Amino acid sequence: MDTQTSQPDSLLGWMASLADATRLRLLRLVERHELGVSDLCEVLQLPQSTVSRHLKLLGDEGWTVNRRRGTTNLYRMVLDELEPAQRQMWLLAREQTEGWAELEQDRLRLVERLRQRSDDAKRFFDSAAEQWGQLRESMYGPKFGTQALLALLPSDWTVADLGCGTGALAFELSRHVSRVIGVDNTPAMLDAARQRTADRKNIELRQGDIESLPIEDGECDAAMLVLVLTYLAEPENALREMARVIRPGGRAVIVDVMRHDRDDFRREMGQQNMGYEQEAVCAMLIDAGFDSPVCTPIPPHPDAKGPALLLCTACKA
């Protein structure tokens, strides 16, 4: 083959194969790990037909290699086996995609996927433990660990559930603390919360806005904002209100969506923004009057279809 002809053709093929967000995400995954189609479908949250189509194109262009294990094809990029110009092109693409929010979402899902995977020997030796785990979950449900964590709360605390919705969290909190104040601005949500919590005498539900809470200054020992901030145009106002109703030394807890690139998800959920980076939430908490904020990603549940979440805690200054 004429070298002068083949080089431009190869270059154009490599450029075309990188000119797609899904293929860039695939390559970032298989650069570090050898993965099957089912792994990639779960991490990318895409159908098998889509993932297989992109993998075939990447294989045809020499970006990936695959091998058979049982009935599964495993895919991997071997950086040292790429053509020199191809390798340089990939290093540039990798550099330019650093900080891409969607890649962090993929990384978290991959961590959870890899945690679930195990080789045959480990499955054999863990079989008895797995049976117990299945039995325990069938008896107590998948949230019994949450119950144990809630039990660590001081039993004499008053905790506010801000944006309480249908009262599920308020109900769980009421088992472990002295008093729960649930606040929401949607009458239908509060009606559902009242039905759910009717037999819990230590829950008080109040209608009001997150940015102007119907709670006295320092009335609460702790307050929670769970999947609320992404619905607010000015989340800073809500955090200042949160700080106002917590006593000095009290605690703030926030659970919300990590920064992502899925505008379809944002529109479907009616959210105001595309989630938050950990550093941004910490900065907002400090500005609102909190000390020592800590933000960490929450490993996504394997069945979860939405973006990953983050957990932030801080102390009232």
Architecture (CATH level 2) name of the largest domain = 3-Layer(aba) Sandwich
Strand order of the largest sheet: 6-5-4-7-8-10-9
Structural class: alpha/beta
Task: Please compute the radius of gyration using only Cα atoms.
Answer: 24 Å
**Uncertain segments of ≥5 residues (pLDDT<50)?**
1-5, 120-130, 135-141
The CATH topology name of the largest domain reads Rossmann fold
Portion in beta strands: 15-25%
Topology order in helix (H) and strand (E) letters:
HHEHHEEHHHHEHEHEEHEHHEE
- Name the overall outline: elongated
Q: Fraction of residues in helices?
A: 40-55%
Oligomer: single chain
Name of the CATH superfamily of the largest domain: Vaccinia Virus protein VP39
C-alpha termini separation? 72 Å
Structural commentary:
- This protein is α/β, with parallel strands linked by helices.
- The chain has two domains: 3-116, Arc Repressor Mutant, subunit A, CATH 1.10.10; 142-316, Vaccinia Virus protein VP39 (Rossmann fold, 3-Layer(aba) Sandwich).
- 47% of the residues lie in helices and 20% in strands.
- It has a seven-stranded mixed sheet, sandwiched between helices. A three-stranded antiparallel sheet has the order 1-3-2.
- The longest helix has 21 residues, at 120-140.
- Mean pLDDT is 85; it is low at 1-5, 120-130 and 135-141.
